[in-house]
Every structure is written in structure tokens, then in C-alpha cells.
Amino acid sequence: MKDFKGKVALITGAAYGFGKEFVKQAAQRQMKIAAVDIIGDELEKVIPLAQELGAEEIITIQADVGIYEETEKVVAAVMEKFGAIDLLMNNAGVAVPGNGINLPLRDWEWIVQTNFMSHIYFMRQVIPIMIKQDRHCNIMNTCSIAGIINFTGMAPYFSTKHAAVALSECVNYELQALGADIAMGVFCPGYVQTHLDHSEEYRPERFKDESDPYYQSEEFAKGQASAKYVIETGLPLEGFGETVFKAIEEDQFYVLTHPQYDGFLQLQTGEKLKRSNPNLAQLIEAIKGGK
Q1: Domain coordinates of the chain in residue numbers?
Q2: Checking DSSP bridges between strand 182-188 and strand 8-12, what pairing results, if any?
């Protein structure tokens, strides 16, 4: 997407972290913005910020993106207000650290619905809209380096991020087969100073059970402390919004932030890709060639 002015951006997880940075970048490019988050009070604060930075127009929508019916309401509200969606940024995400075997099923379900199913919910509604618009559009899914590598201690989070990367790759193949003028991308940051370690603040009522002894366990406490440490010692957040929007300008597929992880992508594809501009064509050739 080369020309952003007046185009419509739908951004989830927009109250904090990467989502808020994406709102700022969209505003600077004079886009029309639909900012979505489960936290309503904080979400409203992005309105004056976006207006000050030059947004043509902005609306905020409080919604739980892990519920399909709520995503339907979001898309309907955006279409009623703006009549189009040119850029979809599936950015909402949560994390609950802990051993995948011990973690309560409610946590698995919460993470899966937010980090993975929400991508499906929005793409299956927005892609047909984009195709009908008959103009170039973009989708950028925030996935994390956790969608490419694995560590111990956060099986649900890493699993959903792997699933989100695979989903993006597969849907991209399908869009290419259809000849759709939609560029897909996956943003896979490493440790960055986001708000992810505050996920408990976003936990919906349907996933709460304070009586569960797991949430008073040493394992849970250590996991929370570890998550807080890796986020707080990550790279500063500033600048990553610009990185992602530069990638959108170039219709770049993989968007990585930490050079030390490039080798993992190379191992998966059998092809050394330039971090500045990896693309799906290279991946397809690598796979076909058995490299």
C-alpha cells in the first residue's frame, strides 16, 4: 500500500503497545481509523492522540475479539461509518505464562480465542469486503517471534502464535490463487516493551475463577514475574510502528525485529531471507527446490 491517505485501517488491541503505535502511524498517514480494544477507558485516549497526529477520522469500538459475534459488530460498525476496509491489523493478543499441562483449560481457551481465532473471525469477514472493493488492500497479523521458535514455559502462547503464522501463510497462498489484490503480512517481534505482561487486566469474566488454586501457586507467580522481566528488559517500543508500516508500504510478508532470530526463519525455509524484505515467492521456490 503506497497511498494511505483517506484509506480505512481497522486495528485491534489498539489501546496499548503495538496497537497504539499502529494507530499513531495510521494517523500520521492521514488514514481513517477504527481502533478496537477490550479496554474501553484506555482506548478512548487514542482519539485525541490520533487527531493531533493528523488522522482524517477515528472511531473507537470496545469489543472482545475472542467472540465471533462481537467481531461481526465491529466490522458492521466500521462499514457503516466508513464504507470500506483497506488495512486490517489483527494485533490483539494475551499471554498467560505457565506449563501447558498445568495451565487451566480456561487459559488455553482464552489465549486461543484471542491470539488465533480472532484472526480467523476478522479475515473471513474482511477479505470478501476487500475483494469486492477491487483495489489494493493489506492485512498485517501480529504473530510474534514465538510463532517461529519455541521455548519452555509458555506452550499455549507459543502454540497460538505458530498457528497464527501458519494461518497467515496459508491464507496468503489462497489469496494468490484467487488473484486477489490483497497483500498479507506477519509481524514477528521479539521481546519489546509492550503491555503484554499486563494481560490479566484484560481477562474477560467468562475466563475468571479466582478460586482456582493454580492462580495462587508458585508456578503462576514465577511465570508472571518472568513475563514482567522479559517485557521490561525488551527493546523500547518506539520505532516499531514505523517499521511495520514501512513493511506494509512494500507489501512485505515476514516482518522481523531482532536480527538474532533470522537463523530460525532460515532453518524453517531452507533459504536465507533478507530481514528487510523477505517475500513469499522466495519461500515457495525454496520449498519447491527442496533446499
Answers
A1: 8-252
A2: unpaired
Q: By the 8 A CB rule, do 212 and 104 touch?
A: yes
pLDDT at 288: 42
CA distances from 50 to 107, 142, 176, 204, 242 (A): 33, 21, 33, 27, 15
pTM for this model (two decimals): 0.88
- Looking at residue 258, its pLDDT comes to 66
Which residue shows C-alpha cell 531471507? 273
User: CATH classification of 8-252 is 3.40.50.720, yes or no?
Assistant: yes
What is the number of residues in the chain?
Answer: 291
* DSSP letter (8 states) at residue 62: E
**pLDDT of residue 272 exceeding 50:** no
Residue 147's contacts (CB-CB under 8 Å, 6 or more residues apart) are 158, 161, 162, 163, 164, 165, 186, 188
Euclidean distance between CA atoms 190 and 192, whole angstroms: 6
Active site residue 214: no
Cell of 184: 498479507
Whether the per-residue pLDDT at 182 is higher than 70: the answer is yes
Residue 34: beta bridge partners?
Answer: 10, 59
- Rounded Cα gap, residues 257 and 255, in angstroms: 7
146 within 8 A of 98, measured Cβ to Cβ:
no
- Report which secondary-structure segment, H or E, holds 8: strand 8-12
pLDDT value, residue 229 = 87
Q: Based on DSSP, count helices (H) and strands (E) in the chain, helices before strands.
A: 11, 7
Q: What is the mean pLDDT of residues 25-47?
A: 97
Over 80: is that where the pLDDT of 260 sits? no
The one catalytic residue among 16, 121, 157, 254: 157
Contact 71, 85 (CB under 8 A): no
